[in-house]
């Protein structure tokens, strides 16, 4: 077992900081991220838990012209409602019909972001342009795509969530930020063609990776989180007494 490089209090603070400061960043500096840094992040994330050590993740890393070429192709489709409107996602990430409390949370984060950007309700053109920034990876220098074998079941998506979290937390440990992106899902066939992803692999999501642009107003958005008491029930039998 690997020994801790820090004392217990410092270690706890570092881990808590990395988790608590992880958020979806939507504007990045043009500063490059070395390939060695990306490899180091993935090397740490590979220790994520997975059922029976299946390790179901496959990662595609895009930089430079490869990223620009894919972004341009997806943006062209996104700007053509007749074509993009017919595209289907490989799986349902969101509920088909939103309901409380998830509907309210979704609306709040959307309008909080648009409010910061000065996008008025009903301004469909500016909403489309902002959403389209997903396909440029919000100008991050690194774009990632994650795929999984189509023959695997839902449990592997649970494993994948732990892997994605590990990627994002490891990035924070290197002063990098990320944005996991389901927006790419409906373009999964085009992405597979452009990256020569085998037909047996399904797109899980995309992700932006880079150094946050602190001057961009959208990066001041901090989403609200429910307190522990709102989602936790403690079952304590230690106080039971016998007659």
Describe this structure as you would to a colleague.
The chain is an alpha+beta fold and 243 residues long. It has a single domain (24-224), classed as NADH Oxidase (3-Layer(aba) Sandwich). It is built from 9 helices and 4 strands, in the order H-H-E-H-H-H-H-E-H-E-H-E-H. A 4-stranded antiparallel β-sheet has the order 1-2-4-3, sandwiched between helices. 22% of the residues are buried.
What is the structure about, briefly put?
By secondary structure, the chain is an alpha+beta fold. 41% of the residues lie in helices and 12% in strands.
* CATH fold category name: NADH Oxidase
Which architecture name does CATH use?
3-Layer(aba) Sandwich
Would you list the SSEs in sequence order as H and E? HHEHHHHEHEHEH
CATH superfamily: NADH Oxidase
Counted beta strands: 4
Please estimate the helix content: 40-55%
Strand order of the largest sheet: 1-2-4-3
Measured between the Cα atoms of the first and last residue, the distance is 46 Å
Q: What fraction strand?
A: 5-15%
Task: Indicate the overall shape.
Answer: globular
Structural class: alpha+beta
Rg estimate, integer Å: 20 Å
CATH class: Alpha Beta
Question: What's the mean pLDDT score?
Answer: 95
Domain count: 1
Q: Could you describe the largest sheet, including whether it forms a barrel? A: 4 strands, antiparallel
Unreliable residue stretches: none
Number of helices: 9
């Amino acid at each position: 077992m690997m020994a801790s490089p820090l004392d217990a209090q410092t270690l706890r603070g570092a881990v808590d900081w990395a988790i608590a400061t992880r958020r979806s960043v939507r504007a990045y500096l043009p500063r490059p991220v070395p390939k060695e840094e990306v490899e180091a992040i993935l090397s740490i994330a590979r220790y994520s838990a997975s059922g029976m050590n299946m390790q179901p993740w496959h990662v595609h890393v895009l930089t430079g012209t490869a990223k620009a070429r894919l972004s341009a192709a997806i943006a062209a489709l996104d700007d053509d409602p007749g074509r993009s409107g017919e595209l289907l996602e490989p799986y349902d990430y969101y509920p088909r019909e939103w309901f409380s409390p998830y509907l309210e949370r979704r609306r709040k984060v959307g309008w909080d972001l648009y409010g910061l950007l000065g996008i008025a309700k009903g301004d469909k053109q500016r909403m489309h342009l902002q959403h389209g920034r997903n396909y440029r990876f919000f100008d991050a220098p690194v774009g990632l795509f994650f795929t999984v074998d189509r023959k695997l079941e839902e449990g592997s998506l649970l494993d994948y969530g732990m892997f994605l979290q590990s990627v994002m937390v490891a990035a924070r440990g290197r002063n990098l930020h990320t944005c996991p992106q389901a927006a790419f899902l409906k373009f999964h066939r085009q992405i597979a063609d452009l990256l020569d992803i085998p037909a047996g692999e399904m797109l899980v999501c995309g992700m932006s990776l880079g150094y946050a642009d602190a001057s961009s107003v959208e990066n001041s958005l901090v989403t609200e989180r429910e307190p522990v008491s709102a989602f936790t029930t403690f079952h304590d039998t230690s106080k039971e007494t016998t007659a």
